[in-house]
Every structure is written in C-alpha cells, then in structure tokens.
Design a protein that fits this description.
By secondary structure, this protein is α+β, with helices and mostly antiparallel strands. The protein contains four helices and two strands. It has a two-stranded antiparallel sheet with strand order 1-2. Helix 2 crosses helix 3. It is globular and about 50 Å long.
C-alpha cells in the first residue's frame, strides 16, 4: 500500500442522502435509474433516500405526464445540530456549480 493510501477508509464526505440531494438539485427531472450510477447506489437505495428526503420536506415530487420532477426546498435546514440554523440552499449552490458536466448532462436532457 502506498503512503498516501495508508489509513484511508472507504468513506466519502457526503452521505448517500447528500449525494442524491445534490444530483436532484442538478437535474430535477432525472429518473431514479439515472441518479443511481452517478451516486454509486442501487436504484432501490436511491428510491428509499428520495422517500426520506420527501418525507422530511427537502424535496417535493410533481408528476408531469409520465415523468416525475423534483423540486428541492432550498430553505430546509440541515438536520444535524452542528449546522443548526443553516439552510441547504447555499450548500447546494456550491456543489451544483462545479462538476455539472460530469454528472447527468443538461437539465433539458430528454432522459
């Protein structure tokens, strides 16, 4: 094992919920099957996370024909007491501004 890899666990800074929320903020019309490979989770896991986020008021689901479009409630606050009083909107602005080309494509992608 090389020196930089020593002691590095298999973890990421954001949880699955965070990754899914960022991808939905980037692509509100993305399908669960589109989000799944980007965040590295199964479709079933992404569906459960979307349900959690919706139940807690972070997302609103709207059916448009046969498609579902998600709206992120940017005024929602972080759940952890260490971030008490901070809204998710500015956090999402930071993470959605960078790296959008590597994700699912533009918002007008017909997927």
């Amino acid at each position: 094992m090389s020196e930089p890899d020593r002691g590095r666990g298999n973890w990421t800074l954001l949880t699955g919920h965070g990754h899914v929320l960022v991808e939905i903020a980037r692509h509100p019309g993305a399908r669960i099957r589109d989000i799944s490979p980007v965040v590295g989770l199964t479709e079933r896991s992404v569906q459960a996370i979307v349900a959690d986020l919706e139940a807690e008021g972070y997302l609103t689901r709207t059916r448009t024909g046969r498609r579902v479009v998600y709206t992120v409630n940017r005024d929602s606050e972080f759940r952890h007491t260490a971030q008490a009083g901070h809204r998710i909107g500015p956090f999402l602005d930071l993470l959605t501004a960078a790296g959008t080309d590597e994700a699912l494509g533009s918002d007008d992608d017909p997927r």
